[in-house]
Specification:
The protein is of the alpha/beta class. 33% of the residues lie in helices and 27% in strands.
C-alpha cells in the first residue's frame, strides 16, 4: 500500500557531507518506516553530497534537482506541489540536512496527529548540538495550543525541522512565503493561526538541532 506520510528535505551548496549523512540516516532508521522521502538539491551542491545522495538505494527516496538556488521556501514549495498532487499523502514531515531525528520521532508524531485530528501541526522538544554533536542545551517548548499561539507573537512556536503537519495545513494556509528573510516557516505558522488551525508540541526530545 502507498504510504500516507511524505518527508521533505532540501540540501544546498553550504551543506556538509558528514551532516547530510547523519541527517539522512536518522530518517531511514526511523521506527515508523512507512513513508516516502523527498530530497531536493536547491541548486548545485558539493560533488561528494551529490554522489552520496545519488547512490542511495532505499526505495523510499525520491530525489529532485533545481538548476539554480531558489532558497529554502522555494525548494520546499517545489516538493510540496509534487506531494500535494498525490491524494494518498495525508501527512508531511520536515527535516533539515544538518539535524538528527531521534528514532521514534515519526512514530510519536504520526500517532499523535492520528489521535488528535483537531491538531494540524505537531513539533517536539529538541536538543541543540554543535558541529561535533556535542550537547549544547535542551529546549523545551509549550505543548498546548493557547500557549503556542501566545508565544508566536514573540518567538517561533516550533523548531522548523521538528514539525509534522496535516496536508490540510498547506491547503488552508498556503505554501511557504518566498518573500521573507529566513522566517518562511514562522510566516506560514502565522497564516495557519489566522485560519484557526491548532498547534501542539510533544514534550519529548525527538530532534537534535545543530547550532
Amino acid at each position: 500500500p502507498m504510504p500516507d506520510l511524505a518527508v521533505i528535505m532540501s540540501i544546498y551548496k553550504n551543506d556538509r557531507l558528514v551532516f547530510v549523512k547523519q541527517s539522512v540516516q536518522s530518517i531511514l532508521d526511523q521506527t515508523f518506516s512507512q513513508f516516502h522521502y523527498y530530497i531536493i538539491f536547491d541548486g548545485p551542491v558539493a560533488s561528494d553530497i551529490d554522489n552520496y545522495v545519488s547512490s542511495l538505494t532505499d526505495s523510499r527516496i525520491k530525489h529532485f534537482r533545481l538548476e539554480k538556488n531558489e532558497g529554502l521556501a522555494g525548494a520546499l514549495n517545489y516538493l510540496l506541489k509534487i506531494v500535494l498532487s498525490n491524494p494518498e499523502y495525508k501527512i508531511i514531515a520536515r527535516m533539515d540536512a544538518d539535524d538528527i531525528s531521534l528514532p521514534e520521532r515519526f512514530e510519536k508524531q504520526y500517532n499523535f496527529l492520528n489521535h488528535n485530528p483537531d491538531i494540524s501541526i505537531v513539533g517536539c522538544w529538541y536538543e541543540e548540538i554543535d558541529e561535533t554533536e556535542r550537547h549544547f542545551s535542551y529546549r523545551k517548548l509549550p505543548t498546548e495550543h493557547e500557549k503556542l499561539r501566545k508565544r508566536y507573537f514573540t518567538r517561533t512556536p516550533f523548531a522548523h525541522p521538528s514539525v509534522m503537519y496535516a496536508r490540510s495545513l498547506i491547503e488552508i494556509a498556503g505554501f511557504y512565503p518566498t518573500d521573507t528573510i529566513l522566517m518562511e516557516d514562522n510566516a506560514l505558522w502565522g497564516r495557519a493561526l489566522i485560519a484557526g488551525l491548532k498547534f501542539a508540541n510533544i514534550p519529548e526530545y525527538l530532534l537534535q538541532f545543530r547550532i
